[in-house]
């Protein structure tokens, strides 16, 4: 097992847009599909696929409902999602720190 | 890969800032509570009564009877000025706390639909209603008894009350973390009890002018700052807390108007600073929020 920070990167979470979805969701209780689509500049189809991947991985909960007659899809990050996001951010920061101080790079 | 990680972290930081900016809506509660505080002197003036020679019948507001036990739930909200109806101002501050909290909830609900971001409003609700409950139940019930146990309002007694509160907070925080056990549950109960005792006594001692409603607003705003994760809201909430303490403990009319017996001027002088902090904070939040979105 490598001790390089990349070993801590999770394939499900590490994708740029999925990381964006988790980051936005972590800032609030629930976020609407429309807000995510606009903030991440994604098509509805693309966003749906990324949300499905995160939901299947057990990192997000998806709530479907109505405001009047208007259908609304809201996304909520759960504890596993928060932990996965924190782990990913720590791994990214470790990578940046490693770049800033290459002398600390361990010799394999 | 490492350069890519730095760029990714930078992008995520910007995304987080944008989301926080979009979700910020605290300017409205700041302005609302600021205006409601500024209006209070007019209510105090309108609620003036002629004091009978044998004193006011209900100096601490209406009484509540629970199982033969009597207490005045609005005693923290009644005025130190003897010529003002305690019930009228008591119900005014109760109304400010309840209506202000409900309007704030409605505002965030409306924004959640409009913007698409639903905040963790439970934090604010817990702080605002929790503070209100503490002010109308344990403080009026226990304060008289606590003054006897912990001493009066001299320096040593105040320090003892603060120490009880700090120990309670520390014990609660320690026992609330990690896995629960029987010992931790006992510690948690003792911690919460000490927090309530300390809070009751400190609040009672800090409430010489009867502006306890400001404390409820202050705790609610601190919760709002936590919910919003906003530095500006946090600074405004802390400044407001300091101004509320000053209004409740010091005769501000000595500084602003000199000696006066006017109910309107005395109340205005005491409340103008906390109101101004909220109104200025609200306007700054509104303007900076609009600028950053443009």
Outline:
The complex is a heterodimer of chains A (108) and B (294). By secondary structure, chain A is α+β, with helices and mostly antiparallel strands.
Please tell me about this protein's structure.
The complex is a heterodimer of chains A (108) and B (294). By secondary structure, chain A is an alpha+beta fold. Chain A is built from 5 helices and 3 strands; from the N terminus they run H-H-E-H-H-E-E-H. Chain A has a 3-stranded antiparallel β-sheet with strand order 1-3-2. By secondary structure, chain B is mostly helical. Chain B is 74% helix and 3% strand. The longest helix of chain B has 31 residues, at 263-293. Chain B is globular. Strand 1 of chain A pairs antiparallel with strand 3 (117-118) of chain B.
List the helices and strands and how they pair.
The complex is a heterodimer of chains A (108) and B (294).
Chain A: H1 11-14, H2 16-26, E1 30-32, H3 33-39, H4 44-56, E2 60-67, E3 70-77, H5 79-100
Antiparallel strand pairs in A: 1-3, 2-3
Chain B: H1 2-23, H2 27-46, E1 64-66, E2 69-71, H3 86-115, E3 117-118, H4 121-136, H5 138-150, H6 155-176, H7 182-205, H8 212-228, H9 231-249, H10 253-256, H11 263-293
Antiparallel strand pairs in B: 1-2
Helix pairs in contact in B: 2-3, 2-11, 3-4, 3-8, 4-5, 4-8, 5-7, 6-7, 8-9, 9-11
Question: What is the count of β-strands of chain A?
Answer: 3
Roughly what fraction of the amino acids of chain A lie in strands?
15-25%
Distance between the first and last residues' Cα of chain A? 11 Å
Report the helical percentage of chain B.
over 70%
Please tell me how large the radius of gyration of chain A is.
Answer: 17 Å
Index terms:
heterodimer; A: 108 residues; alpha+beta; 3-stranded antiparallel β-sheet; 5 helices; 3 strands; elongated; B: 294 residues; mainly alpha; two-stranded antiparallel sheet; 11 helices
